[in-house]
Amino acid sequence: MHAAIIRRPTDRKTPHVTTPRLVAFDLDDTLAPSKSPLDPEMAELLVRLLGVVEVCVISGGQIAQFEMQVIDNLQGASDAALERLHLMPTCGTQYYRYTDDAWTQIYAQNLTDDEKTRALEVVERVARRLGYWETKTWGPILEDRGSQITFSALGQSAPVAEKTAWDPTGEKKNTLREAAQAELPDLEVRSGGSTSVDITRQGIDKAYGMKKLAEMTGIPLDDMLFVGDRLDPDGNDYPVKALGVECFAVEGWHDTAAYLEKLIPELQAAAAAS
């Protein structure tokens, strides 16, 4: 493949790249609205895509979110199609594959009890000091995801409109991230979703996950394509772009759907010609 090409959603042209062997996606605001199930249109497109290439979903969320948002909505997907789907919760610190009619965890790189305790204490204390510890929330603010501690300012189930209004510029989230990182130098603190901050071991981000994916599948990064909504320098998809993986930028699942409507026929034609 050529060097990474980033196109804005207003440019509806499909990037002119070598046919990818694997297409990877962010989840929230790329395949589905934040913490919401796939739209039936997107689910159908994913099933079609699985018919021609390997597909990965990589996100900061835990496997339960992947199940609710993605797996439970892939109606009509054959076992052969599901076997081409790679699930990487918590930015690739966990990896799941479909084998023997079930989703199986291939690995999990969990935090130690000490790392979890310190991360939970620091992020709550810093959030309270900054005035970001909200009283009106939807679900837990703090989550232990095994390989990742996640702070969600309004809770995991907050409505999209509430999240957007809470931190429209990302300033709160970035301030919280920087303050927590200063107190957790041995861990990695990074921006997650629109109102969340994730804490993992050092060096853990989506670039880490993509490199693990290449290692596990044997598919080189140069043969992968990544689609995400936060490819800006402050976004949690940016490490994939910085890694040199071919990328396509979207601003929501409708952009992704429009892109796949063009990409899938191209992949099908390439497969037929090979």
UniProtKB/TrEMBL annotation:
EC number assigned by the record: 5.4.2.8
Chain positions recorded as Mg(2+) binding sites: D26, D28, D229
Subcellular location(s) of the protein: Cytoplasm
Cofactor(s) named in the record: Mg(2+)
Main localization, broad class: cytoplasm
Enzyme class: isomerase
Gene3D superfamilies: 3.30.1240.20, HAD superfamily/HAD-like
GO cellular component: cytoplasm
Keywords attached to this entry: Cytoplasm, Isomerase, Magnesium, Metal-binding
Top-rank taxon: Bacteria
GO BP term, pick one: GDP-mannose biosynthetic process
Chain sites annotated for binding alpha-D-mannose 1-phosphate: R145, S196, D198
SUPFAM superfamilies linked: HAD-like
InterPro entries per the UniProt record, alphabetical: HAD-like_sf, HAD-SF_hydro_IIB, HAD_sf, PMM, PMM_cap
Record-annotated active site: D26, D28
Family designation: Belongs to the eukaryotic PMM family.
Subunit structure: Homodimer.
Annotated protein name in UniProt: phosphomannomutase
Organism lineage string: Bacteria, Bacillati, Actinomycetota, Actinomycetes, Micrococcales
